[in-house]
Amino acid sequence: MPLPSSARALKKPRLDDEVRFLRSWIEKPLHMGAVMPSGKLLARTMAHYVDVDSDAPVVELGPGTGAITSALIERGVDPKRLVLVEYNPGFCALLRDRYPQAKVVQGDAYRLRDTLWNVLSAPASAVVSGLPLVTKPMLTRLRLIRDAFTALAPGAPFVQFTYAVVPPIPKSLPGVSTEASERIWMNLPPARVWVYRKD
């Protein structure tokens, strides 16, 4: 039985996003954190760790088509607080169209200090990352979290998801506390959210 036109209209943006993701993944697989956009439960779990009552910026790394961005806004984060750091120019154009109040920065999140130079008006209340960390060398991952902590307010979270069973950044970093969500089995593939805070 065919879907009613209203249901087809709701499914079309998600299908379009999946096609965009798949095309980008085929072109540059190691630049993409996922083959498909994050599932809603994973996106909501990541957004859960962000303080909605703060006025400070929220930096999202690798937002892609905006699955996690949407979850942040649904949770109550003011879109004006969002700083979306995206490498792919096509995704940047899409994000500017979908989230006109957010600040979209086309740049390399793995060079976060340079990318955010002169962008943040105050220390960030969270950095939320959809980057493919486990595809990168450990030194690159450690440099990213070091730069993220430089941009963050004291005690603010660096939130990262991974499909891997091991944490994307070691749990034993000196001066850093770590927590993890339950495995999110409803996501394809199943994922876990890791949260790092500088003590």
Automatic annotation (TrEMBL):
Annotated GO MF terms: RNA binding; rRNA (adenine-N6,N6-)-dimethyltransferase activity
InterPro entries membership: KsgA/Erm (IPR001737), SAM-dependent_MTases_sf (IPR029063)
UniProt entry keywords in alphabetical sequence = Methyltransferase, RNA-binding, S-adenosyl-L-methionine, Transferase
Q: Which Pfam families match?
A: RrnaAD (PF00398)
Q: Which domain of life is it from?
A: Bacteria
What protein is this chain from?
Answer: Methyltransferase
Instruction: Report which residue ranges the record marks as coiled coil.
Output: none
